[in-house]
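User: I'll paste a sequence; please echo it back and then give the predicted structure.

Assistant: Echoing your sequence first, then the prediction.
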Amino acid sequence: MTGNRLFPLPDGATVCPLGQGTWRMGQSAARRQEEIRALRHGIELGMNLVDTAEMYDNEELVGEAVRPYREKVFLVSKVLPSNASYRGTKLACEHSLLRLGTEYIDLYLLHWKGCHPYEETIRAMVELRQEGKIRMWGVSNLDTADMERIVLLPGGNGCATDQVLYNLGDRGVEFDLMPWCAARRMPVMAYSPISEGRLLRHRTLVEIARRHDAPPAQIALAWTMRQPGIIAIPKAGNVTHVEDNFRSLSINLTEEDLYDLDTAFPAPIRKIPLAGW
């Protein structure tokens, strides 16, 4: 079902526009095996992008989950800003590789803006790629002005993506960041695509869900993925939730649906500071 929805990343890899987030997974030993089964089921369905970070403290769990499918999986992790000096980035990546139990990370991100100069982080990213420890690098939670700075730095044009908060209730990135990325054919990764469930009782979303005979979460996910170049990474801690998310790939929103959602959740008409970290 995902085959016709795959799209290419800058190095030619293809990913499903519906990935798997893992924020707050791995916090309970009692749920560990259930969460591993959920991630593996998602991979089997075709949701081949799995997102983690050193901050999440769950790279061991993610590594165990993806190990039987490693060549099929597009694995994403992130370096904390406090570790994002030249030397710190390289050490953090080595530690992530050990915890994940893999020889390479497909996409390695700066988690958010910190005190270390971008030049140092980028130099480390470029070297990690040359060493085969990462396939691509990118950033997370950076707004347009920072993105413009990054691509002008030595090696900065290798930035592959920006991962940001994006959902029906948080549309600020549509004003300038998303058009900037689209002009450079740079995909945007959307975390919290259903706003951690806060959107799901909104009457417009509920009504559109009724039209499609689907849960509101599937409508919210379908909306996030409505245009090319957007990868949504919702979290699902059990197999049933994974299957529910997966079905959003089959939902085709109508012009009426999109109009009603734009009315209920207006697009930005001015610059809004980037939400998130």
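The CA atoms of residues 2 and 46 lie 6 Å apart. The chain has a mean pLDDT of 95.
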